[in-house]
Known about the structure:
By secondary structure, the protein is mainly alpha-helical. The chain has helices at 2-12, 20-33, 35-41, 56-59, 61-83, 124-142. InterPro entries: Cyt_c/b562 (IPR010980), Cyt_c_II (IPR002321).
Amino acid sequence: MADAAKTISGVFDGKLAYDAAAFKAAAETIRHRSGKAMVESFPAGSFGAPSAAKVEIDQSRGEFAALARHLESLAAALSLAADNAPDGITESMRMAPGMAMGSSSLLGKRAGSATDADPSKMPAEHVFHLILQDCTNCHAKFREKRQ
Length: 147
């Protein structure tokens, strides 16, 4: 997932040339590894080495599953954006200057925040930022820091 995120980030940062197929493949990697697949990767009692998963996954299974599903829906929207932009990043894929990011992900969102909106109607760049936000929130709560 980290490599997929680096690919998408490189495209939005202008460090990598836009390639719709590569962009879509990266989004699909995130989509396929989130949702049900992510939850099934961490069954009850699977915390600790070698995964660095915290016991909080077991203690907050519903929250973890909701976050995994949210990540999947965001990645699906990003994949759709690649389908709709075969020749390059469109202006509609970019975040507008000053666009609000919302409060945070499912771990602490406020009602009416950007995470409540339909991600397929958001600029792809904004959706990607929400994906990164979900990753950060999930790792902060459910993953041990590695040295």
